[in-house]
Amino acid sequence: MCYTIPMSNHARSHNNLVTAEKAKALLSVKKAAGTIAKVQQMVENDAYCIDIIQQIDAVAGLLQSAKKTLLSGHLAHCLADKLKEDKGKTIEELIKVYNAAR
User: Fold this and answer.
1) What is the pTM assigned to this prediction?
2) What is the rounded CA–CA span in Å between residue 24 and residue 41?
3) Are 48 and 21 in contact (CB under 8 A)?
4) DSSP states of 27-96 as a string?
5) Phi/psi at 97 (nearest 5 deg)?
6) Angle at the Cα of 68 (from 10 to 100), degrees rounded to 5?
7) At what angle do helices 49-73 and 87-101 cross, to 10 degrees?
8) Residue 9 pLDDT more than 70?
9) Is 39:52 a contact under the CB 8 Å cutoff?
10) Least CB-packed of 2, 25, 37, 97 within 10 Å?
11) Whose CA is closest to 98, among 90, 77, 28?
């Protein structure tokens, strides 16, 4: 027999993150993965160092974009729900988000 567990408000809001921010973050991560493969080939083929460095910077930018998207979604959805439940834990979570953003 299968039992279903009702979704909490947090889980519902997290599903919103999945549908909205996840697609944007996932696209950035996939682009970064493709660029990393390109960087690996460039290193193996002794490409010009500055060209490799530029591609590495592109990967870092893509990952930073994904990080910002996920952090802003987390703040907008997950922390907003937590704030209604437990302000003390929400402040702890906010500190974690702040540290992750640096």
Assistant:
1) 0.72
2) 26
3) no
4) HHHHHHHHHHHHHHHHHHTT--HHHHHHHHHHHHHHHHHHHHHHHHHIIIIIIHHHHHH-HHHHHHHHHH
5) -65, -45
6) 80
7) 170
8) no
9) yes
10) 2
11) 90
CATH code of the domain occupying 20-101: 1.20.58.1000
Could you give the CA distance from residue 26 to residue 24 in angstroms, rounded to a whole number? Answer: 5
Q: What is the mean pLDDT of residues 33-62?
A: 98
Map tokens 């591609």 to a residue: 55
How is residue 54 written in tokens?
A: 């530029």
Question: Residue 16: which pLDDT band, with cuts at 50, 70 and 90?
Answer: low
Query: Is residue 94 a contact partner of residue 79, using CB atoms and an 8 Å limit?
Result: yes
Boundaries of every domain in the chain: 20-101
Mean pLDDT value of segment 93-101: 83
Closest CA relative to residue 78, chosen from 27, 11, 6: 11
